[in-house]
Each structure stands twice: as structure tokens, then as C-alpha cells.
Amino acid sequence: IRFGAPAAGADEVNVVLRVRGEPTVRIYHSTAGRTDDWPTVTVDRAALPVVDTILSGESWYLQDREEFVRHFPALAGDLDRARMQAVATLPLVASNGDILGGIAFAFAHAQDFASVKPRLAAVADLAAQSLDRAQLFEHQRDVASALQIALLPSALPLLDDVPVEARYVAGGDVAVGGDWYDVLRLGDGRIGLLIGDAAGRGVEAATMMGKVRHVAAALSMDLTSPAAVLDRINRYLHFIASRRSMITCCIVIVDAERRTLRYASAGHPPPLLLTHEGRTCFLEGARGVPLGVVADARYTDATYALGRETTLLLYTDGLVERRGEWIDDGLGRLAGVLAGRSNDDFATLCDDLIGAMVGAPPDDDVALLAAHIVPQRAGRKVEVELPADASELRSVRHELGRWLTEQEVEPPVRDEVLVAVNEAVANSALHAYPSGEGRIRVALTHDDGTLHATVVDAGQWRPRPADHDGRGLALINALMDDVRVDRTTAGTRVRMSRRLGPTRQNRSKN
Q1: For domain 4-145, is the CATH number 3.40.50.150?
Q2: Residue ranges of the alpha helices (H) in 292-345?
Q3: Domain 154-373 class?
Q4: What number does CATH give the domain 379-509?
Q5: What is the pTM (predicted TM-score) of this model?
Q6: C-alpha to C-alpha distances, 359 to 179, 353, 367, nearest whole angstrom
Q7: Is 445 left (phi over 0), alpha (psi -120 to 50) or beta?
Q8: Rounded distance, CA 376 to CA 495, Å?
Q9: Where are the domains of the chain?
Q10: How far are the Cα atoms of 173, 412, 459, 464 from residue 467, in angstroms, in the given order?
Q11: Which among 368, 273, 285 has a CA at the least distance from the CA of 320?
Q12: Counting Cβ atoms within 10 Å, is residue 147 exposed (0-12), middle (13-18) or buried (19+)?
């Protein structure tokens, strides 16, 4: 638009575009080197020559005010206010014949269009080609984004002891990438974290990514060794691939109860740990060649003993690679961004990391998978799953109360813990499942003089009713030493802890 007016010798130019799928047009106006984006208007209200051109496909060449007013008398005042005398409108036609919109040239003096028609047609043709390419690019990007989202997990599981977060940022071009991740509940309290990157871009890379992600998930459910999973995937790739494929992958099995990580890598960037004290370290062990490169490649496991609460980061190379620098420079930058950070606000930490490390848009796709691990201390545990029905609370209180008695928890503390858990379950039933349909999981652990309780639902919390006093959470905070509420799109988790012993006597009396 900005260069159309000088090229056509016009004083003003309007480009009017159809809004796809709607009976509306959007007007872009340029005059004296300035371009404005005007509001969207409906076709039937935009009684303009250029809109008539869009609807009919025919051009208008109105050489002076008299001719303009003869065809569009209702617009005489608009023409005078704009101080224009002549108007020409041409359709903007895509390569497939569709009319994308129209372009209108306005002139301050009367015109003999016979001599300038070829120039106006050339400007309109160039504008149509540019718009056609831009809309095709936008459409391809939308399709690529939708395909990429469909190939990734639609939601992450809500886990009791290992909250997880994922971020995905698409690269700058329209091609679908091969970055992927997954989170699996493996049983026995173990969690599987998987991330990978299929070489290349486009549908072929995305298709291979989808195959490997599903094969890796299926194998991880049956095999306890990440290295064994990588061995099987590598053989699978050499069996099915019509041409050589290269995929990097890292698999980590988190066992919070035993305080261990077990992991293996196939040419993937190393996982990064952020400790409770704010220190960072990369897991450099168990590194092997990328999948699909060497048919008889063998992979090995490595283990890492967890201390206090730790954040584990898995990521693809788009997070750390930059043109013109070594990957070690990117790894150092990543560690520097996280060093000294707290684990407390886990989701914000992930957002800040993406903001600090990723350009807009990035050169390559970026996938980030993060887990906040709070190792369980040695101790006994009871787990109960119940329907979101108030009538079930009595039996749950009875079972949990019996377990607390077996743990030799004295009646005052036992009763307060039961009240706190009861309130948390009742809140979940009320807010997450107002229809009464759903399941709630409750877990209690007695570890080294401290009771830990977790209440988890998979619903979406609604605002509390007007007649609800909202005192449940305040009561829980009064009865327990530490209370944390984690709400995600996958559901809500309430974590509570209560220290035992003489330091709690005054609280119990109150």
C-alpha cells in the first residue's frame, strides 16, 4: 500500500481485503506515506466502488467528480471531504482465480485513465501476488502448527509427587518440526520423562517423530531400563525405515520414593538439574549415538541420587543452539540463566527460561519438559481413591483414621489431620466436580516424624457458590504446617504436611 500510490501516481490508495469465511472486509488506507489499518466492516454496509469491484470482479474508472456522483451519489460528500476528483478500483485476483480483495486509487484531479490503465493494472497485479503469497504462507503455518500440536500430548498427567510442565515454541518457518516429548505414569510410583528430536523438518520428520514417540511410550511401560528402550527403538528404526533416519532421544525414569533418577541418552543434549540450593549440574553419563545411525548400537543406563527437592529439565537443541557458536556456549548460557534460581515457582521458572533463551521467532523448534521432584522420605504410605460424593467421606475418614492409629499418631493430631484432609476432599468434590461425577485420590505418608497428605482431582475448578463461606482452605492452613495448592489444566493437587511431636502440643490444644 505504501508504495502503491507513488507507483500509480495516485494521491491515496485503499486496499480492501475479504475476511475469510465472513461477509466482511477490512480496509487499509494510505495517504502521504502513512498507512492506517481501518476497522473491519460488513460488505452490505461498505457501499464503496471498491467493494462493488470485489463482489463483481469488474473494475471502475471514474475519471471526474461528475462521473463518480452519477454512479455513487450517496458518496458525494465523502469524495468532497477527501478533496478527491477521480477514482479507479481494480480486483486483486489470486493465482487460482479467487478474488482476495480490491485496490482503490484516488486522485486529487480529474484523470484520463486511458493512458494509466496499464500502470494501475501492473500495481494491482503485483499487490495480488504479494497478498496471495502472504496468505498461503499464513495458511501453511496454521496447518503446520495444528499438525504439530496434534502430534504432541494434548495434556500432561497430574502427578502426586512429580509436577511436570512443558513448553513448545515453533520455529520461524512453516515446516512442521520433529521435536517431541511425553510423560508416562509407569506404576510403583515411577514416572517416565521422554524427549526427542527427529532430524529435518516437514511432514516426513513429523511422521517419524509421531511413530517414535508412540513406540517409546509403549516400550517404556514394559521395560524398566531406559537403555533397553533405546535399543529397541534403534532396531525398530532400522527395520522400518526406507531411508536412514536420525533421531536424538533422552529417557529419564524418576523414582521419587527411592530418590533416584535412571536415564539414558541417544545423542541428545544432557538433562540439567537445578538443586534446592540453586546449583546446576548436567547429567553427562549414559551418552550414546543418535537413534537410526548405527544398527547394532548399544546404550547404557546411568543413575543419579536425588537430594532435596530438585527441578529436572529436558530440552531439545533449539533451546541452546545458535548460529555461529559452539553448543557448549549455549549449555553454559542455560546453566547461567538457572543458577541461583528457586524451585518455588515452578511454572514461572519455565516461562522465564523460554523468555531468556529463545528468540522471537526461534531459528529452530524448541521443546522443554521440566519436572519438580520432591523425594519421599522412607516411611509407610496409604492411598485411597474415591468418587466425588460426600457420602463416601465417612468410609475414607475411617480408613485413614485407622492407618493414622497404626502409625501411633496421637488422637489430637490424628483428628486435626483427618479434618484437614476431609476439607480438602470436600473442596475438590464441590469445585472440581459440581455434577458429582469424577474421582479423587488421597495419599498419606508418615516419614521421619512428619505426616504428608496429598489430595488430587482431575476436574476444572468452578467459582464457589455464593452461599459457600470459603473457610475450608483457611481451616486447612490452621491445622497443617505447610499447605500448597497446584492448579493446572489437568486438575488440582493439594499438598499438606504436619510435624509430629511436642512442638505441636500448643496448636493441638488451640
Answers
A1: no
A2: 327-338
A3: alpha beta
A4: 3.30.565.10
A5: 0.56
A6: 17, 12, 14
A7: beta
A8: 13
A9: 4-145, 154-373, 379-509
A10: 53, 30, 21, 8
A11: 368
A12: middle
* C-alpha span between 108 and 405 (Å, rounded): 93
Nearest CA to 194 out of 260, 264, 283 is that of 264
Q: Are strands 260-266 and 287-288 parallel, antiparallel or unpaired?
A: parallel
List all residues 6 or more positions away from 345 whose beta carbon is below 8 Å from its beta carbon: none
Dist. CA 369–CA 85, nearest whole Å: 62
Residue 328, all three cell numbers: 557448549
* Residue-wise burial string across 471-498, b where 16 or more C-beta atoms lie within 10 A, e elsewhere: ebeeebeebbeebeebeeebbbbbbbbb
Do residues 254 and 237 make contact, with C-beta atoms less than 8 angstroms apart? no
At 303 the three-state DSSP class reads: strand
pLDDT in tens, the chain (510 residues): 566 666 677 888 888 887 766 655 666 655 544 445 445 445 554 578 988 888 889 999 999 999 999 999 988 888 888 889 999 999 999 888 888 888 989 999 999 888 888 889 988 998 889 888 887 777 766 666 666 666 777 777 777 668 889 998 877 655 566 788 999 888 777 899 999 988 766 666 677 777 888 888 888 887 889 999 999 999 988 887 655 678 999 999 998 877 789 999 999 999 999 988 888 999 998 899 999 889 889 999 999 988 777 899 999 998 988 877 888 898 999 999 888 887 667 788 888 888 888 876 667 788 999 998 876 554 578 888 888 776 667 777 877 887 888 788 888 899 999 999 999 988 888 887 877 678 888 999 888 788 999 999 888 766 655 444 557 788 999 999 999 988 877 788 999 999 987 544 444 434
